[in-house]
Amino acid sequence: MFADFEAITDEEGVQTPILLCLEDEESEDTLSFYRKSCVASMFEHLDSLTIDEYGDEWRVIMVFHNFKGYDGFVLGVVQ
Questions:
Q1: 16-73 tens-digit pLDDT
Q2: Measuring CA to CA, how many Å separate 65 from each of 2, 47, 69?
Q3: What torsion, rounded to 10 degrees, do the Cα atoms 6, 10, 72, 65 define?
Q4: Rounded percentage of the chain residues whose pLDDT exceeds 90
Q5: What is the pLDDT confidence band of residue 79, given thresholds at 50, 70 and 90?
Q6: What are phi and psi of 47, to 5 degrees?
Q7: Structural domain boundaries, residue 37
Q8: Which of 17, 52, 62, 78 is the 20 to 30 Å CA partner of 72?
Q9: How far is it, in rounded angstroms, from Cα 33 to Cα 20?
Q10: Angstrom distance (rounded) from CA 22 to CA 73
Q11: Closest CA to 24 of 54, 63, 66
Q12: Residue 41: which residues within 8 A CB-CB, separation 6 or more?
């Protein structure tokens, strides 16, 4: 999965993620999660991908655009 966050910045400089987009290398579809719950919604979706149709565990690898900066920081804080 490939992912990227978009955020808004308030008057104090606090950034809040409002959009998270995911793309799967096997599909041309882009999944979008919105608002302050976008990170929680993304984790729910990823949880649904960890078990295949036969009940076997499936590993999901995510690559974030700019992970060394904002994207990595937001994900680290939420976990």
A1: 888 888 888 777 778 888 887 788 888 888 888 888 888 888 887 777 766 555 555 5
A2: 7, 21, 9
A3: 20
A4: 0
A5: very low
A6: -60, -35
A7: 2-78
A8: 52
A9: 5
A10: 17
A11: 63
A12: 20, 33
Q: Report residue 34 as tokens.
A: 């919105």
Q: Per the structure, how many domains does the chain have?
A: 1
3 neighbors 20 (Cβ within 8 angstroms): yes
Contact 2, 22 (CB under 8 A): yes
DSSP states along the chain: -EEEEEEEE-TTS-EEEEEEEEE-TT-S-EEEEESTTHHHHHHHHHHHTSB-TTS-B-----EETTTTTHHHHHHHHH-
Residue 72 pLDDT: 55
